[in-house]
Amino acid sequence: MSVMGKPHSLKTDNAPAYCAKTFAQFCETWNIHHLFGIPYNSQGQAIVERANRTLKTALQRQEKKAGVPASLSEKEGWLASVLFTLNHLNVSIQDHQSYTRLQKHFQQTEILPAPLVRYKILPSNEWSEPVKLITWGKGYAAVSTPQGPRWVPARCIRLYHGMATVPPESSTAVRPHTTDRPGRSAQPPQDSQAGKS
Fold first, then answer.
1. Is the pTM for the entire model greater than 0.85?
2. Which residues bind DNA (predicted)?
């Protein structure tokens, strides 16, 4: 809770610690909606059960190979060494590079360059100069302006392609009456009366 903040809801199994009155009072005090999983159904807690299985397998493997090291007389020390092995020494290969689980967990995602967008300045309905897009969500967008970040309705955002200086809907361009399609002449139409004389 100190790192991620207070959860809105919490789903647990039916262990005695979670069914206790003190835990119910804790959830009520912090306004946390507490849900219980289906009794004797471990699939409802799949991620936790998989982590438990991985830990048990690693403990059994270490016990079979060399036994519990003499330097680790307490169970807490043995558990800490197995967790260290799993998190720091267990290497997986991804994209022809080796990563430990800890590196994969804290790995930065690839940051792509921010696209340039134009936004409608309300209520004047003028379009801004191209600015960088920070984020775009359902119904909103944040853009980086010289004055600082600005929240804009998503309907007022248009991607900037670097060609047009005005948005297409406010363009006053006139369509030429000639075309350059194959099989058609690019010449202006001839007056039909000029050829009769």
1. no
2. 115-162
Return all residues near 59 (Cβ < 8 A) that are at least 6 apart: 78, 79, 82
Closest CA relative to residue 37, chosen from 17, 16, 20, 15: 15
Topology (CATH level 3) of domain 116-170: SH3 type barrels. (2.30.30)
Task: Domain 9-106: give its CATH code.
Answer: 3.30.420.10
Instruction: Retrieve residue 16's tokens.
Output: 């005695």
Phi/psi region, residue 125 (left: phi>0; alpha: psi -120 to 50; beta: rest), is left
Going from N- to C-terminal start, the domains of the chain cover 9-106, 116-170
Distance between CA 37 and CA 12 in Å, rounded? 6
Residues 86, 52: Cα–Cα separation, whole Å: 12
Burial class (CB in 10 A: 0-12, 13-18, 19+), 67: exposed
The tokens of 194 are what? Answer: 């000029």
Q: State which amino acid sits at residue 11.
A: K
Bridge-partner residues for 118, per DSSP?
Answer: 158
Segments of the chain scoring below 50 in pLDDT: 164-192, 194-195, 197
Q: Which amino acid is at 139?
A: G
Determine the pLDDT at residue 29.
Answer: 93
Q: What is the distance between the alpha carbons of residues 131 and 57, in angstroms, rounded to a whole number?
A: 53
Q: Which residue type sits at 193?
A: Q
